[in-house]
Structure formats: C-alpha cells, structure tokens
Design brief:
Low-confidence stretches: 1-34
Family: Belongs to the peptidase S9A family.
Radius of gyration: 26 Å
CATH architecture of one domain: 3-Layer(aba) Sandwich
GO molecular function: serine-type endopeptidase activity
Shape: globular
Number of strands: 37
EC number: 3.4.21.83
Strand content: 25-35%
Enzyme class: hydrolase
Mean pLDDT: 92
Oligomer: single chain
Helix content: 10-25%
Structural class: alpha+beta
Keywords: Hydrolase, Protease, Serine protease, Signal
Distance between the termini: 44 Å
Largest sheet: 8 strands, mixed
Length: 719
C-alpha cells in the first residue's frame, strides 16, 4: 500500500526525526555542508529471539515497519541517502558521463518484432525520449493498419512508479485486459479497455497478480488474487464482464503456502491451466475454456518431488517431467487417460548428461531445447517422419530463448539469440528447410564494433574438485593476460536460475575502460543440469559461495584480473551471495555492489508472514527444523557479520520491495557499520518509490547502472 502522507508532511517528519537523531548521537557533529555528513549510526534496541535452545539478539529488529510510515525509520533511510549522496558527490560527473554513454548507444526508436496471434500481429514501440512502450497491433507483419492499444507513457504520467503487465486480448480481439501497479509491490489492478471506443470498462479487479486468461465466450475472465500480507497468489477467481468483483466465484484456493499459483491458456485455446509450483514439486489443473461454469480438474495427483508442465495438441498432452528423469524428459498421454500417469509415453527419453529445458509444439513439428555441458541447443523434429535437425550458431557460448510461438499452425519457429559479443538477434526458422531469417538485431549506436571484443569459456576447479564454468568477455586492445586488468565478477546461483552469456550495451562502458567481465556459473544454477542446482541449495548451499570465491582466486591466478582490482556484484539472492563471500573472504574484493540483497536469511525464513517465505522452504530449508537452522546460521550474511575489514560496499534497495523487504539491507548496513574495522566506504541508497525491480522506465533504470559502475571506477582510480 502506498504511503498516505503528503510530501510536505513527510518532509517535516523526516527533518524533525533527523534533528532528534543528530542531537542524541554524540558522534555526529552538526554541519552545514552535505559533504561533511557523518555515516548514520543507528540506535540499538536488543530484540531477543530463542529457538532450538539458541538465543540470538538482533539490535536492529526495530527497523521493520510493514506500513512503511514510521517517521524514525524513514528518517534513517533519508539520512543514509544523504550520506551516500555526500560520499559519492565527487562521482556525479562520472555517473552522468556513464549514463549518457549507455543512453547514447540505445536506439531511441526501438520496436519489438511483431508476434502473430489470431488475426493480428502485436508489438511494442519505443519512441524518442519515452520511458515506456506503446503497445500496438497491425493486420500484417509489415505493420499495415497500425492500431495503438495502450500508450503506457500516458498512463504513467501521474505516477512516480508505474508498471503494466499481463496484457491479454479477448478471443474476439475487441477488449484488452492489463494489470497496473503504481507502488511496485507487485499487487496489480486489472483494467479492461474497449478497443473500439478506447474507453475503460467499469470492470476493475483489485488485489491481483496482474495476469488474466479469457474464457472463449469473450466475457468470462480467470484471475488470481494475492494475500495482501504474504503477497502469495493463492486464490483463482472467475469474473464475468459487467458484474462487480464482489460477485466473482472462487474456483480454486491453494492451502499449501509453499506453492505459487499461476494461470495460462493452451496454445489451441481449449484449456485454461492453473499452475501449482513449489521449489521441488508442481502440478496442473485444467479448466474447459469453452464452458463458463467449468471447474478445474487435476491433471494428475500432486506428488512430492514430482515437477512437470504440460502442453496440448489435438487429443494429446505433452509433458515435461522429472519422473524417473533427474534432468527431465518429454512424454505424452492421450486426453482420454487424463489423470493416469501409467499411460504416459516417452517422446524425448531421459538423459543423465543432458537437461531438457523447453519445447514448442506445432501441427507437424516438435521443437525441443536441451542443455549439455552448459551449452544450450535447439532441435526441430518433424512428427510425421521423425526427421530431426539441430540448429547451429557461431558463438561458443550464448543465450537462446524460444518466444512468441503462440499458434500451432505456424510454419516457422521464433527465437532470440545473443552472446557476449553478438547483440540480441531475432530469427524465424523455417520448420521444413531449417533456414534462419534474421528479423532484427539490436542496434548499438556509436562506434561499436563486435570485432573489438572477445569472449572465452573456461572451467575453474573448485576446492572439492568440481569444474565450475566461467564465461568471460573483454575488449581485445585493453586486455593483457598478465594480471593487470580490473575484474568485474557477477553471479546469481539460486533457484536453478541459469545466467547464459548475453549482450549488454551497458557493459561496454566497463569493457572499454579495460575491465574483464566474468559470469561465474556457480552451483545453485542449472548450468550443468539439475544436479548442479541440487548441489547448491539447502544443506549444500555453501557450495554456491565457495564456488564464487574459488573462481575469483583462479581468475586472478590465471592473469585475467589484478588481485587488488577485483569487484563483484549481485542482486536479490545474488545479494545474499555478496554478503556471504565478503564475510568469508573479504580480502579478495576491492568493492562489491549488493542490490536488494537477501541477507537476513534466518529471521526471514522463520517468519511466515513475510512475503514468499513459505515458498522458499525447499530452496533454503525451514529453520524451524534444527538441522536447517544450524546450517543457515553458518552462512546467513547478517548473522555472520563480525569484527574484520570489509571491502568498499554499495547497497541499494527499494522501500516498496515485495521480494526482499527494505529492512533486510537496512539492518545489514547498520550492523556492518557497527562491526567493520576498516575505513572503507559503506554506502546505502534506498529508492523511496521503487520495489524489487528498481525504477520503472527504460532510461531511469540506467541511472542505477551508472551509479554502480562509477562506484567501482572511482575505487579503481584510488587503488
């Protein structure tokens, strides 16, 4: 909920609280210049927590305020922002220079590649200085009879933060539904727009996850309501256009709080799916989209440890499943055997060395995407003949995504391809000839030449003997493998999320200044298949952190970077990674940047009222079980802060973050200030209008990147 305080009143509250805090702090001397502001020193209010006969005392527990209106807390965040501004004032010119560099490489008139759905081709247009897209459609790929559906720039004018999600067109293509969030808490209001008149319908669905799916009668709508406290989407409702939301029928409620709930529609439009997803199990319920009174039916009974997803074509359901297949396999079952797993038939058999990642169905073709030894590959199979063809690409490592394949009768596969040195490229691949047609490649303005850059893929031996893949990129004329270059190392390492090498116009500002950029594909991702993920979560989570540290040591040992010029960055669970590694090996890093960092692991995972906690038990473990509590305590960044030297640290967050609450980094920074024994910089910036994803708007976001880069570059100039 947005803070219901006027800016004038808030300013008075913050100013008063700052004055009180300054008077009560003997170490803070009154100054008239922002440059001389001392680091904020938070008060300590011991809060005792006892579990498993173990007592923890959290002196900064008081910083939590779910309403986000506490004047003292807002004052402290404001003081931190002022201190950050003072400490980094001398970098403002550098920040602006980098901002302009990055912005100057971006084609301001940048439209997406049209995607066919029904009788129209849908796309997004980015124009001039606009921060947001304009959603349009046309009657053909070339853009004939172009029609504006939604100009997000106009909608965003009245808001500091604005986000649109879940655009869905009714089956008759006459009504557009979309979710809007003006706070960045990821709680959306769904609006309905009559495309003939351009006016909004009276229907308005509050408190939703943002997405809807249409029944085939053009008036039945399915959506998910969120719990306002935990922010879990857990109830599926059916709404009929023209009726009040209060009359909507709840057709499903998720009682297990470790599950997320989602909805989508089958490619043939016959079914609406309800997805039930937890970390180690999943399920699907099926609704007949032609029957506005249909109730959901379970695809099969949910089983612990069984993860699967389905797609429908004609009378068959195709199932990606880990049933007796650690790295997943593709199976199928006739719809007359719905609910009977014993009738499932192999389509793509299990392979212990190859992970099935994705697939698409067409009338006579199956396209499937697999990952082997960390490299993604796509194969096209003709169903009628069994003939197969694997697609080839030039780079040794790359990102590859299937998207926009919304119809069974397509004669081409749409995919997106990029690498460290190849800008994002969109292709249509003919399903018969396998010929690739380049539809668009992201323009990089200025003097960019991909030949100036080189990428490598190496393996680093971790302390337990496992080989960790690392992707590297650098500018050829700036790099010497002699241990003199600055090194920027990034990783995420949780939830099985795999960060493939991808192109970034922002990254060029680092490479052109001589940085070597590295992505460490540490355990906790699925870069080397599902076992790579399993070896980096719950009671093996420590491998995530030690892998990152071991990669840093080896990259400097091999001469990719100067051991005194190593910088590291990560966000969210990657922020947890940053917090853990600087507790364990602070001497390795000159500076780190932690964005929206998940650092108070134990306290958060013990509190089921905090958004997402219950869904995370199978990722981190439930600390109510002593074995997990004891293990978490060995790495939880907040609990492991100790009296030692730390690197220079930049921490950023958003007041309205729904994923990692603002008070986690706030407490962490306060405790670091108390314990650290060095004079290195520790700065903390809170965006008072944003949430987990940061600022809205394509150019506004660049300011955050420019801040981080200039922080590192400034440190480099002092090293």
């Amino acid at each position: 909920m947005k803070i219901a305080i006027s800016k004038t009143k808030l300013s008075l509250i913050v100013s008063s609280a700052l004055l009180i805090a300054a008077c009560s702090n003997q170490n803070n001397e009154a100054t008239n210049t922002v440059e001389n502001i001392n680091a904020p020193v938070a008060k300590k209010v011991p809060h005792e927590m006892v579990i498993h006969n173990h007592t923890r005392v959290d002196d900064y527990y008081w910083m939590r305020d779910d309403s986000r209106t506490n004047p003292e807390i807002l004052a402290h965040l404001d003081a931190e922002n002022n201190y950050t501004a003072a400490q980094l004032k001398h970098t403002k010119n550098m920040q602006e220079k980098i901002f302009q560099e990055i912005k100057g490489r971006i084609d301001k008139d940048d439209n997406s590649v049209p995607i066919k759905e029904g009788d129209f081709y849908y796309s997004r247009q980015m124009q001039g200085e606009n921060e947001y897209p304009i959603h349009v459609r046309a009657t053909d790929f070339k853009g004939s009879n172009l029609e504006v559906l939604l100009d997000v720039n106009e909608l965003a004018k009245a808001h500091e933060y604005y986000n649109v999600t879940g655009l869905r067109i009714s089956p008759n293509a006459k009504v557009l539904a979309y979710g809007e969030d003006t706070v960045s808490r990821r709680i959306y209001t769904v609006q309905f727009k009559d495309l003939a008149t351009g006016k909004l319908l009276d229907d308005k669905l509050e408190g939703t996850s943002g997405g809807i799916e249409w029944g085939n009668d053009n008036k039945t709508v399915y959506y998910i309501k969120k719990d306002p406290q935990t922010l879990l989407g857990y109830q599926v409702f059916r709404h009929t256009l023209g009726t009040p939301q209060a009359d909507d029928q709840m057709i499903y409620e998720e009682s297990n709080k470790s599950y997320y709930t989602g909805i989508s529609k089958s490619k043939d439009d016959s079914n609406v799916y309800i997805w039930h997803s937890s970390t180690e199990a999943s399920g699907v319920s099926v609704i007949d989209a032609n029957n506005p009174k249909a109730m959901p039916k379970k695809f099969i009974k949910r089983e612990e440890g069984h993860e699967y997803s389905v797609s429908k074509m004609n009378d068959w359901y195709y199932i990606s499943t880990n049933w007796q297949a650690t790295n997943f396999r593709l199976m199928k079952v006739n719809n007359k055997h719905l609910g009977d797993k014993t009738k499932w038939q192999d389509v793509i058999p299990a392979n212990a060395a190859v992970k099935l990642e994705n697939y698409e169905l067409f009338n006579d073709h199956l396209v499937y995407q697999q990952r082997e030894n960390g490299i993604s590959r796509v194969t096209i199979q003709q169903l009628s003949t069994g003939k197969e063809q694997q697609l080839n690409f030039n780079d040794t490592a790359y990102s590859l995504h299937l998207y926009g394949n919304n119809e069974l009768n397509n004669d081409a596969l749409r995919l997106y391809y990029a690498s460290f040195t190849t800008p994002g490229t969109h292709y249509d691949v003919d399903l018969i000839s396998f010929n690739k047609t380049k539809l668009k490649q992201t323009k990089v303005l200025g003097d960019f030449d991909s030949n100036n850059y080189a990428s490598e893929r190496i393996f680093v031996t971790a302390r337990d003997g496992k080989k960790v893949p690392v992707s590297l990129v650098y500018r050829k004329d700036k790099f010497k493998k002699d241990g003199t270059n600055p090194l920027y190392q990034y990783a995420y390492g949780s939830y099985g999320s795999t960060i493939d090498p991808y192109f970034s116009v922002s990254r060029l500002s680092l490479l052109d200044r001589g940085f070597v950029y590295a992505i460490a594909h540490i355990r906790g991702s699925e870069m080397l298949g599902r076992p790579w993920y399993e070896d980096g979560k719950k009671l093996t989570k420590m491998n995530t952190f030690t892998d990152f540290i071991d990669v840093t040591k080896e990259l400097t040992a091999q001469g990719y970077g100067d051991k005194d010029k190593v910088f590291a960055a990560g966000g969210s669970a990657g922020g947890l990674l940053m917090g853990a590694v600087i507790n364990m090996a602070p001497e390795l890093y000159n500076g780190i940047a932690a964005a929206v960092p998940f650092v108070d692991v134990v306290t958060t995972m013990l509190d089921e009222s905090i958004p997402l906690t219950t869904n995370e038990f199978k990722e981190w473990g439930n600390p109510k079980d002593k074995v997990y509590y004891d293990y978490m305590m060995t790495y939880s960044p907040y609990d492991q802060v100790k009296a030692q030297n730390y690197p220079n640290i930049l921490v950023t967050t958003g007041l309205h973050d729904s994923q990692v609450q603002y008070f986690e980094p706030m407490k962490w920074v306060a405790k670091l200030r108390e314990y650290k024994t060095d004079d290195n910089l520790l700065v903390f910036k809170t965006d008072m209008e944003a949430g987990h994803g940061g600022a809205s708007g394509r150019f506004k976001r660049i300011h955050n990147t420019a801040l981080q880069y200039s922080f590192f570059i400034d440190l480099l100039s002092k090293s």
